[in-house]
Design brief:
disordered C terminus; mainly alpha; 16 helices; about 500 residues; two-stranded antiparallel sheet; Growth Hormone, Chain: A; disordered N terminus
Length: about 500
């Protein structure tokens, strides 16, 4: 929190209203590479099944590799974020990170999906290299959107374009197996090869357009790497992390939220890691997998605005609770489907219910966290937004990775055979545990923790009023003009840019 007696150095005013709005062409050229990014990334949902079915790796081995790869991915996130921000401050752009990340996704993705070796070591190295390339692209590309959009409307607009591009990439991937020149509609090594080649061409073209026509965005101020301000900012980060950790332990709403999201990731990770093997190796209808996911993701594009409208009426906590109930229903429905009885209609019902819940949580969870961040800022008199969202990103990957490893390990432990559609009764029990019982228990725990969270719309509005009042009372006096001390809070927050004095 700012000391009210501390004078800040005025560096200028930025009128967001006078700055030109983000153009439609800016949004399109920026979002284009995200289509290819998700097209290349999408096979990760089923690649463990491909390596088990076609290349003979055991599920327990794959589980260990996926867990290690995801943990490495989670650790690399803050490092890439730090270097991206540092390069941006010094050079005014993030383009080299996005460009290198996109090219490395092509190379690592090709060797992962079109392997020259089928050993566990090869799979592990390629998977880790792919995770690193994806992170190198994704984090700077996300941050780039914030650099481009200066006001609230533009931020919503550009992230909406990026979200649409992500869903379009998923749709393109699941369209490939349905092309007429394939003998069947299964997802196979051949379809993966065609997919990665087509996505690579799109990535190259979109990167060229993006690098040439998308601006870098406004640099508000920069710091010299050798200045005292840079050194003091590092000390401030260390102090910030210490305060964030201390406040985290005594922050009940935050602990409940993170606990809920962790159990959600565990349950969904178990189910998602086995869905391809379940459809192909147990139900014996692998040719329907691409059709089902394609239709479900198209539905996901259209229902997301509906969830936002429902959250406006019922509140985010209630809406997330309903979504978790839908997830539990999809897990229980998974357990009642049987080989020979499940067809396109049953699988569509299963995946659409699951997608409805997952799409809501994807949209509502960060919004709910932002409410808790406001509460934490008010209660602990310290703003730790970046630290809390870093924990959120970390839990997303660790939860899904641990859940995926658990699901694959349990299925392998009970003898599930990915190379055949005839399973033993013991392997069916393992599949039921990993895809129905344990995921449902995890989501029920997540639901209970969500319901117990005290932050709702009414309490958040109270917190916001108190934060605004505190900001108005404690707004620092600037050296430039005495009148700035009496400026309204909204004007101070949106138009005046200040930094600590360089001494």
């Amino acid at each position: 929190m700012s000391n009210p007696k501390t004078k800040l150095k005025y560096i200028g005013t930025a009128s967001f209203e006078k700055n030109p709005s983000l153009t439609l062409s800016n949004c399109i050229t920026y979002a284009l590479p995200a289509i290819a990014m998700l097209w290349i990334y999408a096979p990760l949902v089923i690649v463990q099944g491909i390596y088990a079915k076609y290349y003979g790796l055991s599920l327990t081995t794959i589980a260990a590799i996926v867990l290690f790869g995801r943990l490495f991915d989670a650790v690399s996130d803050p490092l890439i974020g730090y270097f991206s921000d540092r390069y941006r401050r010094q050079m005014g752009t993030r383009k080299p990170f996005v460009l290198v990340g996109g090219v490395l996704m092509i190379v690592s993705g090709y060797f992962l999906y079109v392997p020259v070796s089928t050993s566990a070591y090869y799979f592990g190295i390629c998977l880790i290299a792919f995770y690193l390339a994806y992170t190198l692209f994704d984090i700077p590309h996300n941050a780039w959107a914030s650099d481009l959009a200066l006001n609230s409307f533009d931020k919503s607009k550009i992230f909406s374009f990026r979200s649409a591009a992500v869903f379009l990439g998923l749709v393109l991937f699941y369209t490939i197996p349905l092309l007429p020149f394939f003998k069947a509609q299964d997802i196979t090594p051949e379809t993966l090869q065609v997919s990665i080649i087509a996505a690579s061409f799109l990535m190259i073209l979109s990167l060229i357009v993006c690098m040439k026509y998308t601006p870098d965005g406004m640099v508000l101020y920069s710091r010299d790497r050798n200045s005292k301000l840079e050194a003091s900012s590092i000390l401030q980060r260390v102090a910030l992390l210490r305060v964030a950790f201390q406040s985290f332990l005594s922050n009940r709403p935050l602990c409940l939220f993170f606990g809920s999201y962790l159990f959600y990731g565990l349950g969904y990770g178990m189910w998602l890691s086995l869905i391809f093997l379940y459809v192909d190796g147990y139900l014996g209808v692998g040719e329907l997998f691409a059709q089902v996911f394609l239709i479900a993701y198209v539905v996901g594009i259209f229902v997301t605005p509906g969830w936002c409208g429902l959250a406006k009426m019922l509140g985010k906590k209630t809406t997330m609770s309903l979504a978790m109930i839908l997830m539990v229903i999809s897990f229980l429905y998974t357990g009642i489907l049987r080989p020979g009885e499940a067809g396109l209609a049953e699988l569509l019902t299963l995946k659409i219910i699951n997608t409805l819940g997952a799409s809501c949580i994807l949209a509502m969870a960060p919004a709910m966290l932002s409410k808790i961040v406001d509460y934490s800022t008010w209660k602990f008199k310290s703003e730790n937004t970046a630290a809390y969202f870093s924990i959120y990103a970390f839990l997303t990957k660790v939860g899904m990775a641990t859940g995926a490893a658990m699901g694959l390990y349990i299925a392998g432990l009970y003898g599930f055979d990915a190379t055949t559609t005839t399973q033993s009764s013991e392997s069916v029990i393992g599949l039921w545990l990993a895809m129905t019982l344990l995921p449902a228990i995890c989501l029920i725990v997540a639901l209970v923790l969500t319901v117990l969270n005290p932050i709702n719309a009414r309490r958040h509005s109270i917190v916001r009023r108190r934060l605004n009042a505190r900001l108005f009372v404690q707004a620092p006096v600037e050296e430039v003009s005495e009148n700035h001390a009496h400026r309204k809070v909204s004007d101070l927050a949106s138009k005046t840019l200040v930094v600590p004095p360089s001494g």
